[in-house]
From TrEMBL:
InterPro entries: P-loop_NTPase, Thymidine_kinase, Thymidine_kinase_CS. Belongs to the thymidine kinase family. Its EC number is 2.7.1.21. PANTHER family: THYMIDINE KINASE (PTHR11441), THYMIDINE KINASE, CYTOSOLIC (PTHR11441:SF0). It comes from Naegleria gruberi. It catalyses: thymidine + ATP = dTMP + ADP + H(+). GO terms for molecular function: ATP binding; identical protein binding; metal ion binding; thymidine kinase activity. This is Thymidine kinase. Residues 1-41 are annotated as: Disordered. GO terms for biological process: DNA biosynthetic process; thymidine metabolic process.
Length: 275
């Protein structure tokens, strides 16, 4: 296994002063969408107060939301860590949050595919750890698509003066909206969509294609389960996969890519990562 570069988190923040809530509200967490799929409006003064009470961030409206999304292997987590480092250089207190079920490289660290890691707080719902984040200036969230309360948390934190940086997949392997990520777009000060390189032909890739037989939406994995593809390779190429050998996958793709001179240069990338 190759060496792992680790980024140290910023110092433990000072404990913020608690403010008394200005109005009572239900402690029941709200969802990012109604049962019929209609988004809940979290952009009104009343909703801002409700979210402030729910998540514990005192209102001052001095924060912002930065959204980084794209497909697999586009460098989303790397960009998230880069932005956190910028604030760390300026002596800002930063913290990183990860999805608790993503333990591909570590249970306690966020990791890029090239094994740059940073300590993170694992959770399955952001409301559960909101009280731990009050004293930080910058909050990074990796794999944002997995958090059901992503929209409410980010809005509450930004209204409370926090800089919230989210990296997330925007689409599933079926090219459907993933979680509530796209609902953040009209609420964010900064939105960037990153693209990978097609692992079949080498063109720009905007889509994640699954190469295993699993059908459920949440299947966490790396190059052992997904490849990045362009539109043409996503729509027209079969992707059979063999855990014992990559030859089944490659042979099938080669038959359909005789016209593609770039294919042979990218063939080796299909094998699962070895650590």
């Amino acid at each position: 296994m190759s060496d792992i570069a680790t980024i140290e988190p910023s110092a433990t923040p000072s404990t913020p002063k608690k403010s008394s809530p200005k109005a009572s509200c239900s402690s029941t967490p709200s969802n990012s969408s109604k049962p019929n799929g209609e988004a809940i409006n979290v952009s009104t003064p009343n909703s801002a107060l409700h979210l402030s009470n729910q998540y514990g961030f005192p209102l001052n409206y001095n924060g912002q939301i930065q959204l980084i999304f794209g497909n697999m292997f586009a460098g989303k987590t790397s960009e998230l860590l880069r932005r956190l480092r910028r604030y760390q250089y300026a002596q800002k207190e930063t913290v990183l949050v990860k999805y608790i079920n993503d333990d591909r490289y570590s249970k306690e660290n966020v990791s890029t595919h090239d094994l740059v890691q940073q300590k993170a707080i694992p959770t399955d719902r952001l409301e559960k750890i909101a009280s731990q984040l009050l004293g930080y200036h910058v909050i990074g969230i990796d794999e944002g698509q997995f958090f059901p309360d992503l929209v409410e948390f980010c809005e509450a934190a930004a209204n409370g003066g926090k800089i919230v940086i989210v990296s997330a997949l925007d689409g599933t392997f079926q090219r459907k909206q993933f979680g509530n990520v796209l609902s953040l777009v009209p609420m964010a000060e900064s939105v960037v969509k990153l693209k990978a390189v097609c692992m079949v032909c080498g063109k720009d890739a905007a889509f994640s294609k699954r190469i295993t037989d699993e059908q459920q939406t949440e299947v966490i994995g790396g190059s052992d389960k997904y490849i990045a593809t362009c539109r043409k390779c996503y729509m027209t190429r079969n992707t059979p996969y063999s855990k014992k050998s990559k030859s089944v996958f490659q042979d099938s793709m080669l038959e359909e890519h005789e016209e593609c001179s770039d294919y042979s240069e990218h063939c080796e990338i299909f094998s699962p990562q070895k650590h």
